[in-house]
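## retry 2 of 3
previous attempt timed out at serialization; input unchanged, resubmitting
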Amino acid sequence: MSVTIRKEYSTTDGINAGIKSVVSRKGKWNGDVQALAVACLDHVFKHGNWTYLARLVDGVTECAGVKHTALKGWAEHSMHAVFGENEKGEPAFKYHDGHSNKTIDVEDAASRNWFDYKPPKKDTTKSLGEIREAVLKMIVASMKTDKLSQDEGVTLGEGINALVDGLVDARVEAENEALREALPEQLAA
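## retry succeeded, writing output
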């Protein structure tokens, strides 16, 4: 499958005119923004020039009544980049490590509407290293105050075991919940 760029957006002059039209117009224009955003993304892929996409994102997010983060999130996700400002204060994208204009999948981006974009769920599960670090911090804090043995009538070793058991149980429950959420999606595929 290849992406078809609207004829009016096939040149930089066309992209400029489209940005001006979309940003200045009020009303229903999600489809036009989608077509223009895909054209801008295609321009980034082919030429490495993201200034048009940055202008579109910056302009659309200033329009009243627009899901301000949707186009920005769609563009960031599609480009594997973060939208912000450069050292001159101008709208700019910065690629994530290992990404460039050549890692952009224009076809995938074209298949996803910008106005339906929702950021991926943040993974809140902790790695074993993070759990270990948290436990060690609690142990050190407990040893400094000897709070566990004084306040709860338990030895420090018993307190450490209880902390570790609780953290491991929480990790296992988080992994089980992730599996429960993923199972219906896998069965539907």
